[in-house]
Amino acid sequence: MRADPGFEELRTSRLRLRRSEPGDAEEISAYRSDHDVHEHQGWDHTDPDHIRTEISEMLTRAPGQPGGWVQFTVLTLDDDRLVGDVGLRVDGDEQGVILVGYTMDPAAQNKGYATEAVGALVEYAFDTLGADLVRAYAEASNVASIRVADKVGMPVVDRFTHHEDDQTWHVVRMERPRPPDRG
Prior knowledge:
eight-stranded mixed beta sheet, Aminopeptidase, globular, alpha+beta
């Protein structure tokens, strides 16, 4: 695995993924605070100040560098509209594993943006960062998130229950190994 300190952006046919910036916090907070989004996530805080602080902290790491998440803002190419965010982090427990996460603004859902953005992130994890395995977790009732992972070649490989504080989460693990032709 290797870090990418020179990261500029990822592009797809309709999207641009760039490092999240503190100025994105208001828009990200708006959709992360939406009940339908928040119920499937484990965030303790979704207010703009907290998100701004997290983004600033993430900007100290290069993608692929151990130590925590690196977040990317997802923007449409045609009008530069913020439609969601995706992130990755090196798994500190398993060598060669990159974890990915993704959240889309409800106004931008069901347009294929999540699949396109996550697909680009998975390819980046293999091709640029040298991951051996890309993994995502989702709350088991989050059918849309599970469907996105499956569409980018990360099927459900495990189901389990996770207890944290006074909450119980029913979770799925989705994975995609490095294709044999990418060495």
